[in-house]
Amino acid sequence: MSKSEYLESLEKKYNSQLQNDPASNCFVLLAEVLIKLRKSDNALKVLVNGLRHNKHNITARFLLGKIYFDRWLIDGAKKEFEKVIKLAPDNIAVSKILLQIYTSEGNEERVGEISKNILFFHPDNQELMNFLDDVKSGSNVVELKDIVDEYSDFKSGVSNVSEMMRSGNEEEIVSSTLAELYYEQGHYKDSLELYNKLLLNNPADQSIIERIEKIKSLSVRSDG
């Protein structure tokens, strides 16, 4: 089975699930598959409809913002990315995107607010501090599209399709998208298990490490 054929089988699978349950969170997985198949118009419709039932879904907000950004609909992209950091104020990648957008628009007040907020959650992240220094000095060292694509790859539930096919686990997607869905719904044990699996393949990925630490801290609070 080719990668394209596998993605098409996933498209049918998630479409069927949504027909049975229009409020299902699997709309995010379907949208990601559609994006991989270069069916962004369909993905946009799926995301908009899905968010009517799941308005606080962070991953869906991000993917919708990315589609708007790819089409250079900056106001729409800002609206969705702002909702992401409102729901997840510690999100570095989306904060970076908004910082560069507002810097290009000359909105110094919003740049200052976002910088202060993200440093509150990550006061010891040297890479982030270097990025903020570059933004402050006007150095355009990272393109907006690069940040969006980097974050999208991390979030994508089908980014490792070929490897999953080789392993024979075609029905089991160990993805950051699913892990994030569990996290958003408060299923910390399931989310932690998936993120730990992701970490085995990406031991130096700071985003995964930070998410694992966050889940562990939340698990301790909920148990206590």
**What structural class should be given to the helix and strand makeup?**
mainly alpha
Q: Give the overall shape, derived from the CA principal axes.
A: globular
Indicate the proportion of strand residues: under 5%
- Residue share in helix: over 70%
Task: Provide an overview of this structure.
- The chain is mainly alpha-helical.
- The radius of gyration is 18 Å and the shape is globular.
- Helix content is 75%, strand content 0%.
- The relative contact order is 0.09.
- The chain has a domain at 161-223.
- The protein contains 13 helices and no strands.
- Helix 4 (58-70) runs antiparallel to helix 9 (144-155) and helix 12 (188-201) packs antiparallel against helix 13.
Give the structure's gist in a few sentences.
By secondary structure, the protein is mainly alpha-helical. Helix content is 75%, strand content 0%.
